[in-house]
Each structure stands twice: as C-alpha cells, then as structure tokens.
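In the design runs reported in the main text, the only information available to the sequence generator was the tokenized backbone. The following block is the verbatim input for one such run; it is reproduced so that readers can re-run the procedure and compare outputs position by position.
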C-alpha cells in the first residue's frame, strides 16, 4: 500500500489489523513484538516493512501513531494500523494460526503470547494486544482422528500433543 517502490512485491491479499480500544496506538509495538518473537524462535525470517505515521492527532490516534505499517513473517505480510477514525472498531474477527512441529514449539509460542488465561481454550489464546491466536500442532487433523480426541481437546487450554 505505502511500501517503498524498491521494496519486494507484496502479495495480492494481506491480513490487516486495526488497533483500537485497549490496544489503541500500540500497532507499532505489536509489529515489533511479533517480528522479534518469530525471528528468535521459528526459523522464519521476520521484519518490519514500511510505516507511515499520523502527523497529528487524528480521531482516536495520537500524533506519531501508525496510520499504516507492515511486517513480514516468512513469506506472509501483515498490515497494522492504529484507529484514526472517531469510531470504536475493537480488535475482533481475526485470529492468527501458528502450525507447530513439536510440543516445545507449542509451549514456546503459548508462553510468549498468552496474556489472558480466561481466553484460553482448545489451542486458542489472546495476547497482550487482544489478538487471538491458535497455536496448534501441524498434524492437528490427524490427532483429531484418535478416539474421543475432539471431546478431550475441548477440555484443554494449551494443546498437548501427547494427550491426544
């Protein structure tokens, strides 16, 4: 959208997240947090891309908040922005799914991201920005074919591969 003309091409569709409510004016912090998290742990290269700031207070956004920002994890680009309208939009209707190869990876992402134990259920969690995540084993579909696996999973918070 606002990427430097010399930047790598962006995909046809990019998930976009608007930060509002308790996460208002935290879009840049979130992008930097996710980039650091995935660079340090997943073997996926991550980076912050182009950013554009509100030059002055705009709607709910303070001067300097992100009017537009982008970050990449692996080949996937995301758009982040702070709510510059005067309306309440909240952070809802999206979750990000992380496919993990082993339990150690599930444990790492769960421990790094989960910030609301009341929002944890069968592999879902919410982070400190209010973003919903699904932290699941890459062979999740196969595990769910085990007898009583679905009912058992519904009782779990963090998914534990050995418990399926």
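Verbatim output:
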């Amino acid at each position: 959208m606002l990427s430097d003309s010399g930047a790598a091409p962006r995909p046809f569709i990019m998930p976009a997240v608007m930060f509002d409510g308790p996460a208002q004016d935290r879009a840049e912090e979130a992008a930097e947090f996710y980039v650091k998290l995935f660079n340090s742990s997943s073997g996926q290269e991550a980076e912050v891309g182009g950013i554009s700031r509100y030059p002055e207070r705009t709607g709910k956004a303070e001067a300097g908040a992100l009017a537009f920002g982008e970050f990449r994890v692996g080949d996937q680009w995301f758009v982040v922005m702070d709510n510059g309208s005067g309306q309440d939009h909240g952070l809802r209707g999206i979750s990000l799914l992380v496919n993990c190869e082993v339990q150690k990876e599930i444990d790492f992402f769960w421990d790094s991201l989960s910030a609301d134990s009341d929002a944890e259920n069968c592999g879902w969690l919410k982070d400190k920005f209010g973003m919903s995540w699904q932290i699941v084993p890459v062979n999740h579909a196969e595990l769910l074919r085990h007898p009583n696996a679905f009912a058992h999973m519904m009782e779990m918070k963090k998914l534990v591969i050995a418990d399926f």
